[in-house]
Design goal:
Methylamine Dehydrogenase, Chain H
Length: 407
């Protein structure tokens, strides 16, 4: 087992780091902190590139779009990612992610913003407070509002389908599925007996997984709301869940100190990964070969196929979040003391990055994970390893196509 190598420890926040996100090209990372600031860090030199005030209070969440065409304040057109952040003051801020240039700040909620997301094409923003989901265009015009929960129960998590056609919100003991085009509720998924802490969507949008304090995971059909199966095995609450990029397995992270891998087709428990005292978050590598866990004693990297612990990286403090580079074996995580860590878990080498073709109604396209280019689906690409026509990055295209739910 390798010890792993910490590439850098980036310190500058004075409060807990509450969220982090990696730019689509992997060149920089954004951290959000309870000290009320957002910071942008340059991955190539491991330095804080652009510190800037975020909100009047705690910055609770931040999210990034892919690289898209943008215009700066001088009207100059270029390519950049858009960064959206949400604060305890109820505001949302939209910025050019590489420079921090403020595009707009607006009062989005009367209550603190708990989470936010930006669509894959960068055309709309979602924000969540205690019981509302608001949708906005990039001019801060409100597109719609959906009441999620009443009675002071806040949204604990949300997830966006690969094609952006629906959103899943998790709170209390219920998961709701929302149609992003119409604002209609597609399904209300009820069955958990304790609060739902996290949710995820399969890459083709065929199922939703929810993780709960009742110690179970549940798989649901987002189209009709049917409970497909319940996964039982953890002895304590489940805090995190993730779906492999080819949907071949699920991973769950629990307060009982274990991670479990599951077969979503049968509900069978494939293996249990033990080595932590308290696991807070988990992720699957973009090639589907590795599982990364964040816990009270640091990071661990596991072989998804055999369950072997490959790397253990001890870091100070209970880690709260984990984000993976989209095409390189680099891991970002934040600790409660305000430090952000960049870790290269040696000797990991990724295979072809798994991507999913998306059909939004104009024919299926394949997004490249390396250069963020989008290509029409080749006749023989499904289920095959192909090279990006532009950057020659090696990808494995899933055998299925993601598209809006029907019915």
């Amino acid at each position: 087992m390798s010890e792993g190598e910490e590439r850098a420890s980036l310190e500058g926040h004075t409060g807990w780091i509450t969220d982090c996100a990696v730019s689509p090209d992997g060149s920089f990372v954004v951290s959000a902190s309870r000290d009320g600031t957002l910071k942008i860090w340059d991955l190539t030199v491991a330095e804080e590139t652009v510190p800037f005030p975020g909100h009047q209070g705690i910055v609770n969440a931040c999210a990034m779009s892919p690289i898209i065409k943008v215009r700066d304040k001088g009207g100059v057109e270029g390519a950049d990612a858009l960064l959206v952040s949400g604060g305890s003051d109820g505001t949302l801020s939209l910025r050019l992610a590489s420079t921090g240039e403020l595009v707009k700040t607006w009062q989005a909620h009367d209550d603190p913003v708990r989470s936010c997301a930006i669509s894959a094409d960068g055309s709309w923003i979602m924000s969540a407070d205690d019981n509302l989901l608001n949708f906005w265009d990039l001019t801060a015009e409100k597109l719609s509002t959906w009441e999620v929960f009443a009675g002071g129960v806040f949204v604990r998590g949300c997830a966006l389908s690969t094609d952006g056609s629906f959103i899943v919100s998790a709170s209390d003991e219920t998961v709701q599925v929302w149609d992003t085009a119409t604002g209609g509720e597609l399904a209300s998924l009820k069955g958990h007996t304790r609060p739902v802490n996290a949710c995820a969507v399969s890459p083709d949008g065929s199922f939703v997984v929810s993780a709960s304090d009742d110690g179970t995971l549940k798989l649901w059909d987002p189209r009709g709301g049917e409970l497909l199966r319940t996964l039982e095995g953890h002895s304590w609450g489940v805090d995190g869940c993730a779906v492999a990029p080819d949907a071949s397995f699920l991973v769950s992270a629990s307060k009982d100190g274990s991670l479990k891998l599951w077969d979503p087709a049968t509900g069978e428990e494939l293996r249990t990964l033990k080595g932590h005292d308290f696991v807070t978050a988990c992720a699957v590598s973009p090639d589907g070969q590795y599982v990364v866990s964040a816990a009270d004693d640091g990071l661990k990297v596991w072989d998804a196929g055999g369950g072997t612990e490959i790397a253990a990286i001890p870091l100070a403090g209970q880690l709260r979040c984990v984000a993976l580079h989209p095409s390189r074996p680099l891991v970002w995580c934040g600790d409660p003391g305000g430090a952000l860590h960049l870790v290269e878990p040696l000797p990991i080498v990724y295979g072809p990055i798994i991507v999913t073709a998306i059909d939004g109604g104009r024919g299926p396209v394949v997004p490249c994970a390396y250069c963020i280019e989008v290509w029409p689906l080749g006749e023989e690409w499904l289920g095959q390893a192909v090279d990006c026509p532009r950057c020659q990055g090696r990808m494995r295209v899933n055998s299925f196509i993601a598209g809006p739910p029907k019915g």
